[in-house]
Specification:
Blueprint lengths: L2 H47 L7 H13 L7 E5 L1 H4 L4 H4 L5 E5 L5 H6 L1 H4 L6 E5 L2 H4 L10 H19 L4 E4 L13 H15 L3 E4 L26 H18 L4 H4 L32
Parallel strand pairs: 1-2, 1-3, 3-4, 4-5
Helix pairs in contact: 8-9
C-alpha cells in the first residue's frame, strides 16, 4: 500500500471513529434526558399524591427569591393556585392592562395554599385571585379525593384567612373547572362552586368569578380546542376563554377606565376611542430637532 493510500485509509478510520463517538454521545445524552424526565416525573407524582404541604417548600422559596430579586409592582394582581396558574404563560397578556404576578405550584391542594398563605401573599397585592380546589376533588394520579362538603368548608376557611391577610385588597375565588360539567349542578365541582359563591355573597371582600362560562359545550364537555395537545392543561384558546371573565371582573371592580381596560378598535366606527382621520399625525406634525425633548 502506498503512502497516499495509507493516509486516506487513516483519515477514513478517523472519520468513522469520530462519527461513532458523536453517535454514542448523542445516545448517551438522550438516555440521560429520559432518565431525568422519569426522575422529575416521579418526583412531581410523589408531591401531587402527598398530603404533606412541605413537599412544596422549594417552590415557595423560589417565589420568595424571585420577589426579592425583582419586587412586583405595588398595584399588582396576585394569582395563586395549582397547575392551571403554573402553566398560565400568557397571564400578562390575558389580564392586560393589569400588572400580574402568578404563583402556581404543581398539583397544589387547598391545604397546601393554606399552609403557605402568609408567604404566598407577600408583598400585599392590589387584589388576590385564587384558583384552587380541583385537585382535592378528583382521584388524579392515585390521590385520595375529598368530598364536596369537605372541600367547600376548607375553601371557606382559606378565603376568610386570605382576606384577613391582604385586606383591604379583595380576594377573588375562580370557579373550579370539572372534567365534565353537569348542567343540573350535581357534580362535585358545581356543588363546591355553589357553596363558595354563597359564602362570597355573605362575606365582605371575598368575590366569586365563574370562569367556566365559555369553556363548556352544552354536552357538559370542554369545547373543542380548549385543551392542550396532551389534554393535561388548557390550550392557548382555553386560557383565553377561562381568563376573560376574570379580567372583566377585575377591570370593573378595580375601576380601570375604558381607555385602559381595552385597546380601542380602529376599525369600529362606533368605538368612541378609535382614532379618526383628523387624529392621525402627519409628517408636518413631527417635532423639529429644536422642539424634541
Amino acid at each position: 500500500m502506498s503512502d497516499g493510500e495509507r493516509t486516506r485509509a487513516g483519515r477514513g478510520a478517523s472519520a468513522v471513529s469520530l462519527g461513532a463517538r458523536i453517535g454514542f454521545a448523542a445516545l448517551f445524552a438522550s438516555v440521560l434526558g429520559v432518565v431525568w424526565l422519569a426522575v422529575r416525573g416521579a418526583d412531581e407524582l410523589h408531591r401531587f399524591r402527598s398530603d404533606d404541604p412541605t413537599v412544596w417548600e422549594a417552590d415557595i422559596a423560589a417565589f420568595e427569591r424571585a420577589a426579592a430579586a425583582h419586587p412586583p409592582p405595588r398595584d399588582a394582581v396576585l394569582v395563586v393556585g395549582a397547575s392551571t396558574v403554573r402553566f398560565w404563560e400568557t397571564a400578562a397578556e390575558d389580564l392586560a392592562p393589569l400588572s400580574v404576578v402568578c404563583r402556581g405550584f404543581g398539583g397544589a391542594k387547598v391545604g397546601d395554599v393554606a399552609h403557605y398563605a402568609e408567604r404566598l401573599v407577600r408583598p400585599a397585592p392590589r387584589a388576590l385571585v385564587v384558583s384552587i380546589g380541583g385537585n382535592d376533588l378528583f382521584d388524579l394520579a392515585g390521590s385520595e379525593p375529598r368530598s364536596a362538603d369537605e372541600v367547600a368548608v376548607s375553601l371557606e376557611v382559606l378565603l376568610a384567612r386570605l382576606r384577613a391577610l391582604v385586606a383591604p385588597a379583595p380576594v377573588y375565588f375562580v370557579s373550579i373547572r370539572p372534567p365534565i360539567l353537569d348542567p343540573q349542578g350535581r357534580d362535585p365541582s358545581s356543588q363546591v362552586n355553589a357553596r363558595v359563591r354563597a359564602f362570597a355573597q355573605a362575606t365582605e371582600g371575598v368575590e366569586y368569578v365563574d370562569a367556566n362560562r365559555d369553556l363548556y359545550a352544552t354536552s357538559g364537555h370542554l369545547r373543542e380546542g380548549m385543551r392542550s395537545w396532551d389534554r393535561s392543561q388548557l390550550s392557548r384558546e382555553g386560557y383565553r376563554a377561562w381568563s376573560a371573565p376574570i379580567r372583566e371582573r377585575l377591570v370593573r371592580d378595580l375601576g380601570l377606565g375604558r381607555d385602559r381596560a381595552a385597546p380601542a378598535d380602529p376599525d369600529d366606527p362606533d368605538d368612541p376611542d378609535a382614532p379618526r382621520a383628523d387624529d392621525v399625525p402627519r409628517a408636518d406634525d413631527a417635532p423639529r430637532a429644536s422642539e424634541a425633548g
